[in-house]
Records
---
Amino acid sequence: LIGIDVAKEDDLSEWYQQVITKGEMLEFTDVPGCYIYEPGSYGIYERIQDFFNARIRKMGVRNCYFPLFISEANLQREKDHIEGFAAEVAWVTEGGKNKLEKRLAVRPTSETAMYGYFSKKIRSHRDLPLKLNQWNNVVRWEFKHPMPFIRSREFLWQEGHTAHMTEEEAGKEVLQILDYYEAIYHELLAVPVVKGRKTVAEQFPGAHYTTTVEGFIPSTGRGIQAGTSHCLGQHFAKMFDITVEDPHAKEGEKKEKLHVWQNSWGLTTRSIGIMILTHGDNKGLVIPPRVAEIQAIIVPVGMTAKTTAEDREKHYAETNAIKDALLEAGVRAETDMRDDQSPGWKFNHWELKGVPLRIEFGPKDSAKKVVTIARRDQLAAGKSEIPIADLGKDIPALLETIQSDMFRKASDEFRDHRKIITKWDDFVPALNAKNTCLIPHCLVPDCEDEIKELSSGKIEGQEVDARAPSMGAKSLCIPFDQPAEGLVQGETKCTNPKCERKAEKWVMFGRSY
Ligand SMILES: O=C(C[C@H]1NCCC[C@H]1O)Cn1cnc2c(c1=O)CCCC2
Ligand SMILES: [Mg+2]
């Protein structure tokens, strides 16, 4: 595994491809848009699963599994949601040598696979709330350029599907799940996200409303949807006849059937791509300690041809004792004792793999009863020494410091690229300077289309991103945290120069994935 031979700031897609393959996170296959998730990335996905499972279990959500294939009849049951997506559905038309009577859809999401079951199992209000989740794969025949982790034809995710008696009970869960998505990014992946609501134009057509966590890729200045939690309202319940008898109906009165209120929520392996793009540098991956398989790699140094076999043995024993002390302290530590590679080679290798902390240990360190450490997130800061006696306390603390420093750095970067814009003439230049923009907006879908149009052309004299000159800005979300700056209801105008309406909310716009 030689190092990365292109700079992130010079050629992001080449850099990204090298970092994920040489960092042993993902491999390409001969199926377009389908990738191998190597243990490096799959291990991170498992930590996300453990984190999320622990929390949804406390909410009474139970994991389950529904079929990969969905009948065409079932897929068509919810009209307005499927017609918008029909082009993305993959179909199976043959089984062995036989053409199938009826073609089968490969699930692109499981609403229509699950809600017939919901209709059968939910008869009385006592069957509510029903809360199920699936960890599975889905297929969407995307035509846009595939990008490992970020946009693939098959991806892994969890999809939660719940049914409730009331809209407010459903609404509470929508926000609880969104908080957990934010926590996965903030606490595990050290990636900042903005919580908000999708505008009508950008929400999932089958939903009553959609909430979202929006990420940001600094290298391109583009926003990226990082997770969604929808209230589906009663749309699907009406399509799939998911009803309960009115629990408040008086005795003897005809019992009215009430449609349940549903939610669905999903987070995908895209989260891993966002983490890599956010933290990676020109030496390779930079993995946040909380999701790192190896948190500290111990490399013995100072062994030369002149080192006697006895001294080498003694030194290696001391090196292993350091590892044991760290394991004892709950640190995921490993040693690299390979005698066929130099320390320099090992330093580059583990930097490429993104291991958060390197611990060098040589005879000089041993004599001083210290180790020499190098932080992966601050290689330029050089090395420092830690007394061996303090390792059990100092290393766990240092890993937590690295985690929070990585999150703070990424949060500051995102914050510095969320520009408050109130004058249209500042909008496109801000986009071209790799920013997202918060603007007073009327929330009308047609107006969003106009803004996309107005921000997609080339502007005379403006330096435009060569690879996406034609990409207009779309709305990313209506942030729950609205800027303090005054948007005077009924007075402040919508920022779109062609729009005569008043602004309703501050809306975050940006070029996006
Ligand atoms: O998948 C959802 C809604 C919902 N599905 C479950 C998890 C949460 C949330 O994403 C929206 N959606 C997106 N994309 C597609 C579909 C679709 O329903 C259906 C057809 C193929 C493409
Ligand atoms: Mg899509």
Note: The chain has a mean pLDDT of 95.
---
Amino acid sequence: MPDTASQPAPVLLGNEPGSFPHGVLAERHPAIIRQVREALPYEAGQHRALDALLANCTEGVIEPLPGDAPGRDRWTAWGMDEYVGRSWFDVPWLWAESHFYRRLLDAVGWFGPGAWQGIDPFRPAKLAELDAPETDEELAALDGLAGLSADELGRALLHGSLWGNRADLGFSLSATGTGSGAGRGAGAGGRGEVPALVADDSERLWSLLPPSGTGTLCLVADNAGRELVPDLLLVAHLLAHGRAGRAILHVKPHPYYVSDATTADVVDALRRLTGASGTAAEYGRLLWSALADGRLTVRAHPFSCAPLPYTDMPDDLRAQFAQATVTVLKGDLNYRRLVGDRLWSPTTPFADVTAYFPGPVATLRTLKSDVITGLDADTETALVAAEGQRWRTSGTHALIQVRS
Ligand SMILES: O=P(O)(O)OC[C@@]1(O)O[C@H](CO)[C@@H](O)[C@@H]1O
């Protein structure tokens, strides 16, 4: 029996050794601390703070943020008092992960005041990816799509944006997340009869964005670099071909989940596009002028880094999504937040668990956590027969789901 929105499945915790969430807390977070230490020439105080964070997040309990900590009131509203004194492994996994990034930024001095204020610990990794030869190849490949019709090009760019979600630098640090490049493309990734795309509502998405549209597209971005670049190309295409009159790009207000895009990353990506040649540069210039004339807006709402599902979104964000013709949520974490980070039965209807969302909502995601809804029974059976439960977290499958 599928779960239902009124009888929800259990919220994921990280306290089961051997589970994917446990591995993230016990192995991925220490690996992220190691990577951050090596990325920038931190000072002794920052190394000491990283030592303390490592000990605390693996063996300690959640501690209250100091009284004067930036955003403390928000974290109180987001449930901090309830979780203080408990092991990181025993509170909702989503909450523990999100809080880890808040503490990591504290340790490196991101919030300031001080000389390290605003220095993104993940920037070297993000820039390396943006500057990689693979990015050049992907941008150059755009010129080869010149012969496609606008619709064909739109579909190609939608798939580029979808599979761009493989480019998640946190994921590449985890033991199960190796195998770079697998699954990039609609036909790749699955074994035997199992499709790479396990759900595909893309026609419904296109019907929400007709060519004569004057509507507003809200795109809630995920990773910077090689995910954000194809996201921006898709937005440029939708604006250029009138499928959206206006686009609003939501990014994170601070560095998060390693490679999540901030405004600084949007700037880097746009400079990368305008500094390229051919079609990529044209798209870059289009977006640059769309920002200037108001067709494109960037927003960085605090709730984008909240440790909570979208059911708890504040009224101002709810009103923004309600005004959109469609809100497109990118990536695995946004998917988890959209459906509640619960271990749903995979055939639980997507429309039911997203019924609360204020307006049409679409999700483009590669599968990198246990959370999944909206599969048909045959697809689930084929996936399990071919891969056991590995398909849930391997990042080699993807989905496009829409609730209109
Ligand atoms: O949102 P994204 O970038 O697609 O993925 C984020 C992610 O790597 O982080 C979580 C584990 O830390 C997983 O849910 C997911 O695989």
Note: The domain at 3-117 is CATH 1.20.930 (Transcription Elongation Factor S-II; Chain A).
